[in-house]
Amino acid sequence: MAPGKWTTSLSSIILCASLLLAGCADDPSDGGSSGDTIKVGVLHSLSGTMAISEVTVRDSELLAIEQVNAAGGVLGKKLEPVVEDGASDWPTFAEKAQKLISEDKVAATFGGWTSASRKAMLPVFERNKALLWYPVQYEGLESSPYIFYTGATTNQQIVPALDYLKEQGRKSIFLVGSDYVFPRTANKIIKAYAQANGMTVVGEEYTPLGNTEYSTIVNKLGQAKPDVVFNTLNGDSNVAFFKQLRSGGFTDKTMPTVSVSVAEEEVGGIGPENIAGHLVAWNYYQTTEGATNAEFVKAYKAKYGATKVTSDPMEAGYNAVKLWAAAATKAGSVDVEAVKKAAGGIALDLPEGKVTIDGENQHVFKTARIGLIQPDGQIKEVWNSGQPVKPDPYLKGYPWAAGLAS
Amino acid sequence: MGALNQLVIGASIGAVLLLASLGLTFTFGQMGVINMAHGEFIMAGAYTAFVLQPLFGSQAVVVALPAAFVVGGVLGLLLERLFIRRFYGRPLDTLLLTFGISLILQQVARDVFGAPNVQVTAPGWLTGGVDLAGVRMPYNRIFILVLAVGCVMLISVYLSRFRHGRRMRAVMQNRQLAAVSGVATGRVDQATFFIGSGLAGVAGVALTLIGPVGPTLGSAYIVDAFLVVVAGGLGQLRGAVIAAFALGVLNSYVEFWTANGASFAKVVVFAVIIGFLQFRPQGMFVLRSRALT
Fold it and tell me: How do residues A50-79 score in pLDDT, each as one tens digit?
């Protein structure tokens, strides 16, 4: 027994190690580098609860990098993506960001989804004076000199959504969100808005990220009977929430919701039959009209499969790569300070329409759009702001928001 | 009515906890194996339903119940035969070993099925629910409750009426005495591991009805499952049943009565268990034994 014991446990260790190595084999970072390429980081959660959302953003960023390369690259050099997995874990994001900056010496990093991951990465990028392009709508009240925000800030998404609800006569709101910085800050803004606009917040509930037990919250919703539920859940908690809302006996008519982190990709995961008829607020839908979007959708499907969908954060990630490439080209260098200086005022025709970088706060002008989820999983636009809205991350243009920034 | 509703919700949370921990009651209870990979057998069961989905459509969940039992059971058997057998009597090493195996299984699932979570569509007759005197009972919750109760009944019949089951109990209660009485404890251990892990597979199928299926599905439940087993008493079926439902109901009421209760309920449940174990470190029910250990 005794000698066999050691050999088998040794062989099992080797087996384990080789399995682990096999898991890393598809990591493109081990490709090595040469002087003819510019390395850029792509840092998203490829595993864990946020993977449902972030994997597709990585895919669209890689598509944009491929397109930039096909058009000759940046400053005559090809871009070489270094992909890392943030694993839905905020310290991992910070760690991987540091690795991309100091080991891979990337010119810029495209990454993050949850605000918690951005907050974890922010000090890393500021300390190293490196650039992060963050592609997701968020809660505002931030403007780091080393981050470009290509997703919506609150006055381009949440505030227009509230305006829309007010216009529709929805007076009482129930807030449901994941328990981290974005939902909590967004709800603070929503409460300030509600107070100033004669709406009432009848409930506020947070659940841990990745939570799948929503029957108690559904029961509370049934008791409070709000006009609308404002949903800031992130990741696949949305799947559990909408399934359980439905099995709790509520429909889009009896318990309408508006979500700010549910796009085409998540609708597919939730199952359109569970969520059709509910509202979402974004700046881009796969159905958004325009030749640039038609091309983007076509290129994405050609690369990743005809059944794939495109969504707002994917588009914002795609935009980030294009905008950075344009800024670097204009600057004539990939140097961080030069790119930052050149970026202001850059305007490109992108899938959501014309996108301009606001040099002052490093956000972009975006058109706000409210959409209605269709039974086929696509989202139909029911309202838009008409023109791109100037980003106002600190909500300085809104008197009711005074005091929120502190 | 909201408060009454909450009792049903608590019972359904309890049923999920019970299913997830049922198998562990035996592998942990009988064999003293701290099997961290138990959660991954739950995950394997859930993916079994997902794999069967293209073949059986929305009825996959029903077909998956026996299939997942076999899948989980075979995985458990392999784990026992290949690894754990060599680690008996070394609980800390087993813990590390099974934890490593659970990580490997998660990565395998990630490589085979992809990192993003997937969905299993519930059969039509399990969507929706019924209102009974103002109390909402979703069909999928009733199904999970019935499944949990059914599993407990089957097991208790197996343990008391069948020869194999009685041997299992004998080994659980006193391994040495059972061995000298002619019970092949090694073989009984295999059977125990097969059944315990198979039950994890069944739990996985049940979980597809309430949430998404992903590589880390099991690790979300493993801590709760251990809590149930420890609070109920090792190897104690009725202890596990009572602990699971008590924790489920406690969780549901704390969440209901506190604003923003989801996180708070977890804190309270942990605190209550820690407090409880101060007074009864061996759990609700203790196996009476004359063994020196």
Answer: 887 899 999 999 999 999 999 999 999 999
Out of A5, A20, A247, the one facing B86 most closely (by C-beta) is A5
Whether the CB of B14 is below 8 Å from some CB of chain A: the reply is no
A22 contacts in B (CB within 8 Å)? 111
This model of the complex carries an ipTM of 0.80
Which of B107, B214, B252 is the closest to A216 by Cβ?
B252
The pTM is what?
A: 0.82
For residue B267, the surrounding DSSP H or E stretch is helix B261-279
Contact A69, A76 (CB under 8 A): no
Q: Could you tell me if B45 lies within 8 Å of chain A, comparing CB atoms?
A: no
Contacts with A394 (C-beta within 8 Å, 6 or more apart), sequence order: A140, A141, A143, A405
For B2-279, give the CATH class.
mainly alpha
Give me the phi and psi of A169, to 5 degrees please.
80, 20
- Complete domains list, chain A, with CATH: 35-152+291-364 (3.40.50.2300), 155-287+368-401 (3.40.50.2300)
Which among B110, B120, B141, B260 is the top mutation candidate for probing chain A, defined by the most A β-carbons within 10 Å of its own β-carbon? B260
Element (H, E) at B271: helix B261-279
Closest partner residue to A55 (CB to CB) among B12, B115, B212 is B115
